[in-house]
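Meet our chain:
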Amino acid sequence: MNKLKLIPTCLFILLCSLPLSLWSAEESTPANTEPVLNLEDHTKTLEAAEKRLAIKTSTTELLDPIALEALAAGQFAATCISQQEAEQAKVKQGLDSIGTAAGTATTQEDKELQTKRKDLDQQKKEVETQLAQCRLLALKATQIQEQVSANKQAIVKERLFARSPSAVSFILQTLQEPSLWATEIQQIISTLVALPINYRNLSIALMYGLAGLLVGLVWSFYKQHTHSQQEITELVKTSPTLASVWRSIINFMPWILGFGLTSLALHYNHPGVTAINELASTLFLFMISYVIISAMLRPATKSKDFTPVIPATSKKLYYWARIFLLTILLGLLFHSTLFDTDPPSSLVGLIRVVLGTFASLALIRLLWLLRRSVPWLQQYRLYILGAVALVSAIVALWLGYRNFFVFLFNGTFGTLFITLVAWLLLRIPTEMFDGLDEGLAQWQQRLRKRLGIENGQRVPGLIWLRLAHAMAIFALMSLALLRLWGMSEQSMQVMLTKVMDGIQIGSFTLEPMRILIGLLSLAILISLTHLIKNSLSNHWLNRTNMTRGAKETTVTIAGYLGIILAILIGLSIAGIEFTNLAIIAGALSVGIGFGLQNIVNNFVSGLILLFERPIRKGDWIRVGVTEGYVKDINIRSTVIQTFDRSDIIVPNSELIANQVTNMMLSNQYGRVIIPVGVAYGSDPEQVLFLLRSVGEANPAVLREYGELKVQVFFRGFAESSLNFELRCLIKDVEKQMMVTSELNIAIEKAFRIAKIDMPYPQRTIHIASDSAPLKTVQKPTTKTEDLS
């Protein structure tokens, strides 16, 4: 069974479940919630945070919990302030409604008012006290966040520009003590041997890795030898980029499973040395990176089943990419904490400097080669910016600023890697969407047929899915880049909170996440509307006794209602309040009064056409000088396709206000009139008989069907002929020209057999004598003249 048949099902389930899952994740509350803190709890938490903040620290990890506590307190304070301000306004409104206090309470009503006023005054004092405490809490939270941010910046600055021994000092130290390297090697070996390794957990992890390697080998071998040419072609048509990535995954799956299971096993069964966990994770990430680089840059094979993601790649580019990844792997290994000694080892230091320099030069070379294959690198001159950053990193490394080198190198390489991954995630769905619009793969053709989409027509609602997908990818890429270049967890948390809860702009709250979910819902609902329209047209309505026009009207109205409902639901999910649409409705009413009369007129005329059905889709009509078939009836205009296959757009108001001839309104019948002239001397009765016989012999002609019968007439005497006329009704007016041609051929054949002549104009010319002047009268004729 073709496994690619699962692609459309999985895609449809993903598209349908994503908005619902995101919406439920946003609205619902998890089962295991943390205890809710009140104002007093948050105040005590901030007081404790201030005490911890007073202690000098050199690590940002100790500051992160304080930042999160201050962030939570600030959010609570903002909510508290808004609630208390609303309560304060409510109490003030109550006080204003009952008025100021009277001099004395003389009646029962006055006593009740006085009691009510006393309660409201008490509530006002309580609300003001609570509001002041909430504002004080918000001020404290803001101050703590600013102090945490300042401390983090100071720590990061100190780390970045902390100087370690330079490469020159390592070289001089080695030259002064030639036997130093041997001593350091023995010291490193003795350190590695003496590591407190839990060999049992390490053996279990290696066994899991070996099992994963064997399973991956079997799976890879199976996939490579069972992929049929049809499956490969289908996958390439679905997405060439996905096909390249899939090929790369098949090739390297043994190593991915091996290192992945080893890393996972070491995570749950600690080997006793953290560096071993780091090594396993590094190897796993190295294999993932190698898979992506191989999919993007590996040149095409001889079979040409799969093409690389970057078509203009070369062996040189792929070679430098592999060299760079290998250098990165060695650099990560030697930057492990296992090789950190006190005092620092000159041998390890030199190896780190050499590997860092070589990795930076390899990355510069890689960027220089990629600029010809990746358009945006060349267009925005990003390869120059990257090369400058890497050269600066090399200089910093040789001067001893190791942390600054790591920051620049990781930022440059990470930016390139994240951008390429985002490009892959953007390109694969885009190719699938393009395939859906064109119907390239078989599953895409079946889906288009299921949705009732004709060839050359785009999938409705897919543009909104494209937009939502692009927004999601760019948002994730932006977050990853900000985090890569040093954005703190506290700032990231604040930004994500604003994205989820919304950004206040005046009295309007912009909620990006709800807008994204609204776009996804709109795209899915519009596609679902088209699916319902197709099911109505091809299945459900065919089981009813409705006429063709009634079915088309039902389908059209269902489509309009579905689009309107999809828009309303999408706007509702996006957080747009319909009470604010009253302003838009007022503006539209003014616009209608000034310049939209024709549009509204055509809109109402379209509704009349849909419900009254004087014309239907497929009818042959005449409107003024326009004649053709009704191709489509829209809400504003109607498309008429002429017999020359050109489309004419006619406003609906013209079809309502002007005279329209519908050749197919009540039935498909049509009349054919054929005038015939015969020569003088022919038998009129014989001619009438032959014409009637020819008309009745044609299978497309209605014979003796009530009033719809063949009629022949002797119309009169012409200048050179006896004029007759054959009138008959045919079953299908669309075959009028064809039936006319058949009848003409049959009449000519019958007259030829009966030896009845058809005349042609005759002229007699008299030639005067030679003595008389010659007078020639030239009369233009359009038919053959008999000169006698």
